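Hey L., structure's done. Input below.
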Amino acid sequence: MLKKLLAVSISIICMASPALVNAEGDAQAGKQLASSCAGCHGETGNSIVPSFPKLAGQHTSYLNKQLLAFKNGTRQAPMMAPLAMGLNDKNRADLAKFYASQTISANPMPTLKAEDHNSSDEAGSHSDNKNKEAELKALLSFGGDLYRNGDLEREVSACVACHGPFGEGNKPAGFPMLKGQHADYLIQTLTDFKTNTRTKVADNMMHMIATKMTEKEIRAVSYYISVMK
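Output:
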């Protein structure tokens, strides 16, 4: 029961956040604009390169907010800033509508990297398939527990409070959908929040959460989210 308290408290904060009101966009107009984004994010918002985020199915309020943040510099992204500078309010709404209307693709099960292996495993990266499957299962289980329950002792909030039980996010509050996102992108995003690279706002909620997470926790929860459907 106590383990749920942190999730409840952060959920109250999320509920208190003001809803983002955006003009309704035109998906067809957004599709035309998105042609210049396809190189990184794919024609339907499902990027092939795991370091580039999938945009398909994302909430319009969140996408609009991020494009504006790229434009005004409150989100640090040298690649996106010059592109966002040329977008007006209607362009942002149209792009958001197009990507929100697409369906996010499913990811394959993640492949463990050298840093994911147990240090006590003498075989290391040469462990047999059975051991690798057991390690992956344990890591996904750990990530799932962290997503649902957080870590009360270390004050790591549960992801479920703002991003929903199925990673669907919270559209009225502007909290993003996470399910099906690339694990590599999620790992980099949480790391950027942890190091305050993504935003310079010290009291940013995600920064305050990620700064308390270990590298293992970041990787575990990212792998778990990447295979959520």
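The chain is about 50% helix and 0% strand. Residues 16 and 173 are 8 Å apart (CA to CA).

-- N.
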